[in-house]
Design goal:
This protein has about 130 residues and is an alpha+beta fold. It contains two helices and nine strands; from the N terminus they run ααβββββββββ.
């Protein structure tokens, strides 16, 4: 009986940790001061992103997504494999990203504002 109880407890704790980690990867949950949902339906989720100078967000993930730069600046991005790049964003820049897990920090002196449109699972067209 103790083994069954211990196994059940182990499975429950493992599931809670896995679920908690998956939930923590949502940028709105990881960086609520930076990411704000502005639209969502069954096909896309649109986010407003505002990085004040020095602001950073911990590791989080996005599905395939497009980014539109409203106000540019300098953003340091670190991917989950530890690679770092510095992006010099210009107002009006559109950018496409495949699904990614990363962290980011505004290393410049100006606020950065972006609009992110995350794609959800593709739906088959009806009638075709």
């Amino acid at each position: 009986m103790r083994r069954i109880l211990a196994a059940t407890l182990f499975v429950c704790v493992s599931l809670m940790l896995t679920f908690g980690t998956a939930m923590a990867q949502d940028p709105i949950k990881v960086g609520p001061n930076i990411y704000k949902k502005i639209f969502e339906n069954d096909r896309v989720r649109m986010l407003e992103v505002t990085f004040a100078p020095g602001d950073s967000i911990a590791m989080h993930s996005h599905p395939d997504h497009a980014v539109y730069t409203v106000t540019g600046g300098t953003l340091r991005v670190t991917t989950s494999d530890g690679k770092t790049m510095v992006a010099d964003l210009k107002a009006g820049d559109p950018i496409w990203f495949s699904a990614v897990k990363h962290a980011a920090k505004n290393i410049g002196t100006t606020p950065i504002k972006l609009v992110v449109m995350e794609l959800k699972e593709k739906k088959a067209m009806k009638g075709k």
